[in-house]
Amino acid sequence: MVVSWLADGEPAARGAASAPAGALSALRQGLRPQRPAVRFAPAGPDSVPLDPVPDDDTAERADATTSTFRDAARRRHHVHHARLGGLRPGTRYRYTIEPAPSEAPATGEFRTAAAPGDPGEAFTFTCFGDHGTDEPDDPYGTAASRAVVGALDRYDPLFHLVIGDLTYASLRQDPARAWADWFRMIAPSARHRPWMPVAGNHESERGMGRFGLTPYQAYFASPPNGAGPDYEGLWYAFTVGRARFVMLFGEDVCYQDHGEVYLYGFSEGRQTAWLERTLREARADGAIDWVIVGVHQVAMSTAAYHNGGDLGLRAAWLPLFDRYQVDLVLCGHEHHYERTHPVRGVVPDSTELTPLPALTTEPAVLSTAPRATARPVVGSLTARPAGAELERIDATTGAVHVTIGTGGSSTPSSEALFDPPAGRVVVEAEKRHGAGRRRTVYRLEAAPWLAARSTEHPYAFAALRVDPGEPGGTTTIRVTVHDSLAPDEPPFDDFMLTRPRPGEAGSA
Ligand SMILES: [Fe+2]
């Protein structure tokens, strides 16, 4: 567990004046500046959650490391990260940041995942991508950006996945301000549960290091991937219970040129080699049932006027997802909700490498009514009738891709879906003379992979309940998808992935 916080704001000046204000005033008083740290202790049954942790020997202390970078205006920014070690499973902890930051809460509480075999081993996590803030001068977010932070907390997730395009900082005049606003906005949730990030195309900032990712890498202290400082934090994996989460940076393999820095191939194969190794090890591990991928960009999309699925992603990573039986792929980038049937392999003779659905059922709602009438578009979701059977999907037949770039972006794509369904695929990024982005070349394809989508709910998040089941039985992930602006309404999508869980011998 890592507790991270922004150092107190600094003036634009350089030199001594740019030392953190707290440290500077301490020096003036002849005191040694207090090193940033976190004190933490198990929360007792009668402890008041947000009271400071007592400064006695019941508490442990974790010193912070500090990541520093200079922005384009030459201002220096510091981000502190304290790694809390020796945590017990299934335990609630309180923590206090010292010295107290002026811009962030100084106290918080979190809980750790249950130990394997414990009755409380089932857990919930939440996800969405494409967020932004509700600040008046942020043209990329909306009121929904803030609403979703409170809405997801109702599900008390163990952690949250935020699947790329977190702040749109790369498009802002003052990217550091955008990040500070975003962290302040998410703090009511993120002080109580990890927000695990995925980097999107808008995370790379012009002039900010070799790949434009120095600020992103400073803001987050994600689990190491071993690829060296240029690449740390851009892809990583972690395990919760019997699920392995694999977070990827799609810019490496996607053809589309839609960031400040064109990053196709930037890791020179490092990420794909790591991915293959990580997936192979996960599938060889008897203690892992579920393999869940997070990647900002999508392999499939029925949006008519947005980013599209990317052939580069299909070519580079979908064969690995097939080979190692990835169960679930969580994406953003398209600003609407849609999900696919389980897919494995490609439609024969498809030059677009159109993923092949394992199921041949029709979309959830099929209407042949004329387009002029008010009706749901093909595959659009309606509330599941009371008493209707829950849709159960055998995850061993392929990977289900869920697109949920519905965190709060001001440009939703839910109104721009092909009907009848078709897929739009980025097949090339054409380099042109002079400056500017490469031109995206698209092709259309049939969309046999489409299972369901929504035109009605542009702002949404998914809550995923992972239930390990019993050895020799069935393990499940129940996915419910909620409108962020109407969190009291029933979920507008609700389905369950199932997978056989090996018996005791296989789970050693
Ligand atoms: Fe994006």
Automatic annotation (TrEMBL):
<feature type="domain" description="Calcineurin-like phosphoesterase">
    <location>
        <begin position="124"/>
        <end position="337"/>
    </location>
</feature>
<dbReference type="GO" id="GO:0003993">
    <property type="term" value="F:acid phosphatase activity"/>
</dbReference>
<feature type="region of interest" description="Disordered">
    <location>
        <begin position="484"/>
        <end position="508"/>
    </location>
</feature>
<dbReference type="InterPro" id="IPR004843">
    <property type="entry name" value="Calcineurin-like_PHP"/>
</dbReference>
<dbReference type="InterPro" id="IPR008963">
    <property type="entry name" value="Purple_acid_Pase-like_N"/>
</dbReference>
<dbReference type="InterPro" id="IPR039331">
    <property type="entry name" value="PAPs-like"/>
</dbReference>
<protein>
    <submittedName>
        <fullName>Metallophosphoesterase</fullName>
    </submittedName>
</protein>
<dbReference type="GO" id="GO:0046872">
    <property type="term" value="F:metal ion binding"/>
</dbReference>
<keyword id="KW-0732">Signal</keyword>
<dbReference type="Pfam" id="PF00149">
    <property type="entry name" value="Metallophos"/>
</dbReference>
<dbReference type="InterPro" id="IPR029052">
    <property type="entry name" value="Metallo-depent_PP-like"/>
</dbReference>
<feature type="region of interest" description="Disordered">
    <location>
        <begin position="35"/>
        <end position="79"/>
    </location>
</feature>
